[in-house]
Amino acid sequence: xxxxxxxxxxxxxxWFAKTLAERGHEVHATFQASAASYELGRRRRIDALPASVxxxxxxxxxxxxxxxxxxxxxxxxxxxxxxxxxxxxxxxDFDVVQALKNNTEGLSALxxxxxxxxxxxxxxxxxVFEADEGAGEEPRRAFSPYGxxxxxxxxxxxxxxxxxxxxxxxxxxxxxxxxxxxPRFTAYLMKTWYAGKSAEVRTPDYIRDNIxxxxxxxxxxxxxxKGTAVKCAPMGYVESQGAFTLRFAAEMRKRLGLxxxxxxxxxxxxxxxxxRVNTQSLPLPEGEWSETAxxxxxxxxxxxxxxxxxx
Length: 311
Fold this sequence. Notes:
Largest sheet: 7 strands, parallel
Structural class: alpha/beta
Radius of gyration: 20 Å
CATH superfamily of the largest domain: NAD(P)-binding Rossmann-like Domain
Strand content: 15-25%
Number of strands: 12
Mean pLDDT: 95
Number of helices: 10
Number of domains: 2
CATH topology of the largest domain: Rossmann fold
Low-confidence stretches: none
Order of helices and strands: EHEHEHEHHEHEEHEEHEEHEH
Shape: globular
């Protein structure tokens, strides 16, 4: 397939674009800014993309430059709408209006132009933290202002795709972890353990859905290739954060020789929904993905990141 992919500098976007390219698809990755402007984690991910991925710089969705890229080739098979506004995404003051504008501006023109060049299908990336997604206590409200922005973005994407005559599928992301990740929970665990300290889990009772990013990417590629389902919501380790931390510690301990001590605190903050997880237990073909290999790869990554190994 010839694929136009937005958001390949993000953690999950990198893995999705990488996996699609490694399966032999022609991936064209769009980037909002110039090549020189990307730094740190995003720079590393861009540099680590397969050489076959075609990089288009300064091509935000609303730009004439992106329409020129689309016009330059026919036979577009898939549009992957992965890019999203995430500035201060954890803040209660996250700018929902700005996020909606950023996520959807120019989308109508892009879809219409792609449709004239053969496009019939698109995949939008959603979040289990959107309103009315996943499984958990009712009502399943948006998890946060960021979750709200993803909710309304999806509605606009649906509308624009229908007007353009493009079939739109939705891929829901839970809590991915793995190499090239942003410095979030599992990175905190590893940094603490490499410092010889016990990692404290302050919210061990929340039930979440943590998934190896390599497995998530395999499901994404399957969903993109098959094109028969409307929605894909793959489950990972559905368990309390306390149980996941103990699982994670056991896997890293036996691979890295660290103590990986864990202190499970008594949770007092229940400001977030107690449970929010994806809903589909999806198998992968034999040989396509290995859980053991994923843990091995992750241990090597952390040994490089925090253990002083060479990159």
